Amino acid sequence: MHSLFGACRHPEELNGSAATNGEHKTEGRRSHIVSGRQNPAIEVGARIARYVVAVASSATAAGCGWDCLSWVGGQLSIRLARESVSTGPLAAYRLSVAIPLLEPERAARVRRRVGLRRAAIPQARGASPATTADARWSDSDAALEVQASSPGACARCAGTVPAPNMVGRATELAQLNDWFEQARSGTRRVIFVSGEPGIGKTTLTRAFADSFASDRAIRIGRGQCVDQYGAGEPYLPILEALTRLCREPRGEKLVEILHRIAPAWLAQMPSLVNAEDRARLQQLAQGTTQQRMLREMAEALEVIAAETPLVLHLEDLHWSDPSTLDLIATIARRSERARLMILGTYRPVEMLAGKHPLRAMKEELELHQHAIELRLPLLSEADVAAFLAERFSDGKENIASMVYARTEGNPLFMVNVIKYLVDQGSLADAEKIEAPRNIRQTIERNLQRLSPDEQRILEAASVAGAEFSAAAIAAALQQSATEIEACCTALARREQFVATQGIKTWPDGTVAANIRFHHSLYREALYDRVPPGHRVELHERIAARTEQAYGKRTAEIAAELANHSGRRIDRTRPCGFLN
């Protein structure tokens, strides 16, 4: 490992090993121990270093080449993006090893995604590393997105990377394997795995793809769609997947196939050919129509799959460029037998507003049985208990009901709550744990796509509760119940935020639609949007109308009325229903 970790020759530098009298020297440099305590950057580095050393050791032991080590360096660079480390051994490793490990083409793509402040990545292997300590990655969510979407190591050693714990997905994983067996036998399959943010789409699909990592008779190509601003780059995830495949063992055969059948595509992957071929291919690609591009790639993939079953794993198709979706549709509609499987993930909430091209394409393919959707459900309480039993050895599965009540089975939120348990040692304040920031941002982004009237009605509904009558919201907003029902029914039909739950009849004879939020996270996000003063007014109106409707039977809804009453401004008013 000496050559790989050139700047940090001893793992102890990263692990922050014991120092004497607050000092620790490594090759003439101080390791920045402050007041007898470890530098926080080195503490962060300890965990990262152990992970990277383990993966790199497995890679070299397996005889893997540059791609795998490039992945290792890239992972460490991306993780360091959030730490803003500019001094010490971590920064030295980052500048002299991690950044140079990135291949030129991939470096340019990652740099575009996460917004590197200056061109700190060398443009060729062997180039001298950047020397400026402040040439760091921008501290942005995009950095985490790249980290989350980076593929595993190369096909030979991807199975050595520690896989995340996965519970409650045995049925879905078995279904994916069944569909793959159909594809292996010659029936092409296009599968869309969908679900809300944090539901575990990536975990499931990677577990499926990684299960074939050691099988040299199967090719797995991975591509990541990104939320591109402006025109964007056509076919981005496809080009990414093909480039990786061509760099794997036996990749030269794929380059030959592309050279022969899809030269216009190979021209867009200049790192795979020499300068002379690049110039000739670019000349051939001039004037190529989109129809020819689609035909070339569809035929090339069929030729590749004829030799070895092929899986194209494409993440976050809700961000895909239209050209990629056209290619998926073209491949799905072809009738020739092919040992080919396209496995894509997407978030339904990202494509409900407006005429999203993925929605139209997917529905058309499903109509003609050219594609299948696998929608992931939330985890059950039993799944949460299983995760806790696997995560801990001291019987903490008995708190599964508390974790489930807070998260409602969202895997990403569940992990956050359990992390809080580990850090704090108690779940007494579990209800105060906020949802992961990326989930809340996604909810807010989708709320902004609704009309002002729809947002206002949902905000009032969040005051009413997780489940509510349209009549209560009508009273809160002083509108007709018919208007509220029409709005909520339309939202439910589009699967946005709420679902209808039949009819609710109050004791005074009022009949209106009964509606519920899909998830408590939606209600929380909406409730936080309501200004405090207006929130109190809504509570008062809902409580007054409900109390009137139930009359002498208010004892049946005492808890609900107490919740509204507790948020009123005038707390001197007697609450008869509590007596």
Would you mind describing this structure in some detail?
With 579 residues, this protein is of the alpha/beta class. 51% of the residues lie in helices and 9% in strands. It has helices at 11-15, 40-61, 66-81, 88-101, 104-114, 141-149, 170-184, 201-210, 236-247, 251-261, 263-266, 275-285, 290-307, 322-333, 357-367, 381-391, 400-407, 411-424, 437-447, 452-464, 470-477, 481-493, 520-529, 532-550, 558-565; strands at residues 25-26, 29-30, 189-194, 219-224, 310-315, 340-346, 372-375, 467-469, 498-505, 511-517. The strands form three sheets. Strands 4-5-6-3-7 form a five-stranded parallel beta sheet, sandwiched between helices. A three-stranded antiparallel beta sheet has the order 8-10-9. Helix 3 packs across helix 4 (88-101) and helix 7 (170-184) packs across helix 8.
